[in-house]
Predict the structure.
Amino acid sequence: KGFEVLDIQGLNLTTGTEMGRVTPEFWKKFAVEIDHPEADVIFLSCGGIRALEVVEEIEQLTGKPVITSNQAQMWSCLRRAGIKDELNGFGQIFKKPGKTLWPHS
């Protein structure tokens, strides 16, 4: 189990306020640019980013699931509360109705 990180890219921003000023359109372009051909998923980290509204567009452009920090937190909270419904408009992570994203867990 575990992850192999194939690449890490950053924006050299130092505060959450700066991250919050980055537009969703930028995140879409950035995600497509950093997409590693061997990666299974694209992870956009930071609770202050505004990427949720473009997650599904990124998934369509790259053909890969996209996970953001906020999505992961919301997914975890819903599952811990016993809510396993499929939600549309928030990326592939919310189309998994179970307790885990891993098919063999």
